[in-house]
Amino acid sequence: MENPPGVGELTPPDRTLLGPGPSPVHPRVLRAMSTPLVGHLDPAFVDIMDETQDLLRYAFRTENEWTLPVSGTGSAAMEAAIGNLVEPGETMLVPTNGYFGGRMAEMARRAGGEVVHVDAPWGEPLDPADVQDAFDAHQPDVFGFVHAETSTGVRQPQVPELTRIAHSHDALVVADTVTSLGGVELRVDDWNIDAAYAGPQKCLSCPPGASPLTLNDDAMDKVLSRDTPSRSWYLDLSLLEGYWGDERAYHHTAPVTNVYALREALRLVAEEGIEERWARHRRVAGALKSGVEAMGLELEPDDDYWLPSLNAVRVPDGVTDTGVIDYLRDHYDLEIAGGLGDLDGEIFRIGCMGHGAREKNVAFLLTALADALDSLGADVDPAGGIDAARDSL
């Protein structure tokens, strides 16, 4: 076999990441990843595990004992929640109003569950009355909803009402908080959510690799009393409990540097204060929203369920989403994204998350977007955005 061709030093482009994730990583988080490795059962790492779990509880606003980072991306935490709480033959109720409700459905089927739907159009939240009707019709064992739908820019309001409906039917509630944890108001205990999962690369501004998950006692009791083991050995929470619980028994080699990174990202959340962080996201994203609207662009969701961390902006006439996205990347090293599923080609998805939710990024984005739209022939007011954003701030 011939020697491989010479490979040069790794030099990825220095992009400003304002898409749906990953978001810009704070320099302190990058520094934490460069600190020395220790073993995943080293007493020093056990202390780091404890600290990370406490910090996660703060961010989730929960006292749940079973709060841990799953080794893997946010989809691993998602599959850990669904794959452990849905047993073969059980029924899971999932939403149809976005891409990630569809992913919930696929994971539930692979866990051996039956899937039923509560319907809502893409770009709208679930109506509690429709959730009530779906429960009355199907009596599901597990109900999943997406708190912050990354594909549509919709925040699900009335969460306590949804959990009340589910619990009145003895169902457990699983919340997708991938694009809300650390950036949008989320209160796991006060809202009576049984299990919630998230991704570190969104509002926590941390590289993917160790993904937050929390379960209350009711959810964990079900995990520990299953009639059949989880179909995934790696994501079996009854086994992971032995590693992240009191025993600290070997299960797998944890991604040590990713846990370092998550711990530091969560320290930044605690230092800022979780409610202050929510307020910063609303303020900075509000300026972005004012700016794009002043340019003549439309945001997809109504104000009542606008999601500050992910702004879905309608693609104006005269341009394509890919043309604008390519222009921003090629001319400004700036990343935004297009739509998924039913909104493919219809929207831009602009993230305002974590370390990326800063005033200077809003000004940069609006300036670059105005240039792209004007150069490509869209019928917009390129000069209006910055002034409106400034007034908002």
Sum up the structure in keywords:
Aspartate Aminotransferase, domain 2; three-stranded antiparallel beta sheet; Aspartate Aminotransferase, domain 1; globular; seven-stranded mixed beta sheet; alpha/beta; 13 helices; 2 domains; 393 residues
Description:
With 393 residues, the protein is an alpha/beta fold. The chain folds into 2 domains: 27-271, Type I PLP-dependent aspartate aminotransferase-like (Major domain) (Aspartate Aminotransferase, domain 2, 3-Layer(aba) Sandwich); 274-392, Aspartate Aminotransferase, domain 1 (Alpha-Beta Complex). It has helices spanning 27-33, 43-60, 74-85, 99-110, 128-138, 159-168, 217-224, 237-244, 256-272, 274-294, 321-332, 359-376, 384-392, and strands at 16-17, 66-72, 91-95, 114-118, 142-146, 148-149, 154-155, 172-176, 195-197, 209-215, 310-314, 334-335, 337-338, 347-351. A 7-stranded mixed sheet has the order 2-10-9-8-5-3-4, sandwiched between helices. The radius of gyration is 21 Å and the shape is globular. The mean pLDDT is 96.
